[in-house]
Amino acid sequence: MTLLLTVVAGSRAQSTASDLIVLSPNASGTVWTLPEGMFDYDMELEVTYYTDEEVAEMEDAAFTAGVGLTTTDGTTWMLDATPSFDFDLEVDYETDLALSESDDNMTKLNEWNGYEADVTLTRTLAKDMWNTFAAPFSTVIPNGWTVKELTSASFVDGTLTLNFATAASIEAGKPYLVKVGTAADLSASTFTSVVVNKTGVPFTSTNVDFVPTLGATTIPAGETKKVLFLASGNQLKNPSSLPTPIKGFRAYFQLKDEGVEARSFNMNFDDETMGITITVGTDYTDKTDEMFDLQGRKVASPAKGVYILNGKKVVIK
């Protein structure tokens, strides 16, 4: 006879949609064991078996009956008696994975690494401004997103310039700049059938790194002028102190070598004429963030030109 063992409820992901988990039997065929390294499953089991004639012909009505199985550890399953028929086994289980910007996520990412899942992220992208973003999976770019990836960096005459290009897709672990026309609550949508990857992939260069976060983490102690965040209003800011926490699914700039001495920071985009140069090396955390023209008049929506921001010169090109 042939037996089909199906998991009808579970809580983990498979590597691809078509792959099956193979359970290995002992000599008597009464003990079936998940492969070594598989994490624990919370499973409910149903067993259906057929006569050889039914399997061969399939047009006859199949005889089905329950077969008792028990488990003590969620890995080994015991049949009530020694079967006198061959087994075919198939495992189906749920693939939902929820990750939060406020959690470190490493336990979940380690468990799911390399497996396919339907992922939701607790993360909101603010509209009409650049957001840093990183995800623990690769995916197509959602509708309405403009996504830029850092391709090169240079340091000339005290200015650190970052060059961004339009990304073709979102790759697992890489940091990006993202702009959306409407605020995007990522917990309200699902990235379907993506393969989870626990590894961050920072952009690195001589003078600056662009470092992703796949969960809440802490930037370690050091000089505050070596770290830059992209804050509201497309402004670059140093942290007020280090160490400092940063939420998940974001990225920050880590300055090094000559880049630490930069007097200004320029961000260029391949398909936009606007580049923003902002003086760095000053802690903006407690400042007013108000912008004035050279005549001292407050400017709410600056066009191209030279302005004063928190006592420092800002060039909008």
Number of strands: 28
Helix and strand run: EEEEHEEEEHEEEEEEEEEEEEEEEEEEEE
The rounded Rg comes to: 27 Å
Poorly predicted sequence stretches spanning 5 or more consecutive residues: 1-20, 37-46, 58-67, 82-89, 273-277, 279-288
How many H/I helices? Answer: 2
Strand content bin: 35-45%
Secondary-structure class = mainly beta
* Strands side by side in the biggest sheet: 11-14-12-13-24-25-28-27-26
The pLDDT mean sits at 75
The tally of structural domains comes to 2
Q: State the end-to-end CA separation.
A: 76 Å
How is the biggest beta sheet arranged?
A: 9 strands, mixed
Helix content: under 10%
> What form results from the Cα inertia axes?
elongated
Q: How is this structure best described in words?
A:
With 317 residues, the protein is mainly β. The protein has 2 domains: 2-89, no CATH class; 96-270, no CATH class. 4% of the residues lie in helices and 41% in strands. The protein has helices at 52-57, 106-112; strands at residues 2-9, 24-25, 31-33, 44-50, 69-71, 76-79, 86-89, 96-100, 116-122, 124-125, 131-133, 145-156, 159-166, 176-180, 184-185, 191-195, 203-204, 208-213, 217-219, 227-231, 235-237, 244-246, 250-255, 264-269, 276-278, 291-292, 305-309, 312-316. The strands form 7 sheets. It has a 9-stranded mixed beta sheet, with no helix packed on it. The chain has a 5-stranded antiparallel beta sheet with strand order 17-18-23-20-21, with no helix packed on it. Strands 2-3-6-5 form a 4-stranded antiparallel beta sheet, with no helix packed on it. The longest helix is centred in the middle third of the chain and has 7 residues, at 106-112. The termini are far apart.
